[in-house]
Amino acid sequence: MAGKPAVGLDIGTSSIKLAHLKETSKGPQLLAFDTMVLPPDTIKDGVILNAPELVRRLQDLFASNKVRERRVAVSLSGHSVIIKKIALPEMSQAELDEQIQWEAEQYIPFDIKDVNVDYEIINPRAGQGQMDVLLVAAKKAVISELTEVVRAAKLEPVVVDVDSFAIFNAFELNFAVPQQEAVALINVGASTININVVADGATSFTRDITVGGNLLTDEIAKQFAVPWEEAEHMKTTSETTLSMSGVLREVQRIGQRVSENLINEIQRSLDFFAATAMNADISAIYLCGGAALQTGLIEGIERRLGVTVRALNPFGSIVVDPKKFDAQLLQRMVPVSAVAIGLARRQQGDR
Ligand SMILES: Nc1ncnc2c1ncn2[C@@H]1O[C@H](COP(=O)(O)OP(=O)(O)OP(=O)(O)O)[C@@H](O)[C@H]1O
Ligand SMILES: [Mg+2]
User: Fold this and answer.
1) How far is it, in rounded angstroms, from Cα 40 to Cα 35?
2) Among the four residues 56, 83, 248, 290, which has the most C-beta atoms within 10 Å?
3) What CATH number is given to the structural domain containing 265?
């Protein structure tokens, strides 16, 4: 019997997202979902710069949503995580348990003493006496930095996941995972783009690109010589004051240009996947993340890559009580919700 799911807690550069689910006979039901904005320099390039502020906001978010569950599932992304699919001779789980540390040393570019290694057999019969194993290594120092902050907020981290796996979990909950074709799940956040290419029904390739929506905010701040917060506001609003002054048109023009940069990066990663995979044709892209809303991004990806882009909306299969949640408000949070929902599916003891 599975235990109660932990609270999914996605600590992003621009905001924290909280998702709490409960299993019911009709499927997972939403108990809580909310976001809390973080001041600009709370987290930068994946490093927590202002831990006390983050702790305060975590506590606020739990208190204002009256979430009493303290066990949380959190996640990492960016340079501190390495994910590699490796081919090994077929062996039992026990044999693999013994060998993995040694294998990891060959593939992980960090000192093995500094990382936690985890792995999963994703394709036990890859053919010719081989099997595919997904190897995950995360820097211990980064894990403890994150878990310390979480504990300081009186929460108990029971799962430490990876953003790109969390979006796969959210995807799996809502869409049939294609068994024959490859699809790319892409989360465009404020400072990181997570890519997870799913092929043969499992994660085949992941890549975190350390660039995102902040690039556009920086660019607007520079062009208009305004403070960062104001640039962020100009970017995410389409208020009439902006549209009348012609500022909106200029913001969109800059957005278009910055989107092209992000698409270059995405294309480069998918090209890399294509060059190394057997079944490399990507049949669809599922997009999420706040910066997926950026001017020109969706159309640009479709045009450049010639692949249909769909929204990775993680709420499709979740039971939502309309008396408890404002449908419009929830709808607005859809783009940023995938990681938190994916994490909220995790249970203590999961690997
Ligand atoms: N309507 C919009 N138009 C353009 N950009 C937007 C819009 N809404 C949100 N964004 C951008 O989306 C980003 C936030 O997305 P998200 O919450 O997914 O990132 P994050 O999880 O905080 O960051 P990361 O995962 O990179 O650490 C910000 O850069 C924000 O400016
Ligand atoms: Mg994020």
Assistant:
1) 15
2) 290
3) 3.30.420.40
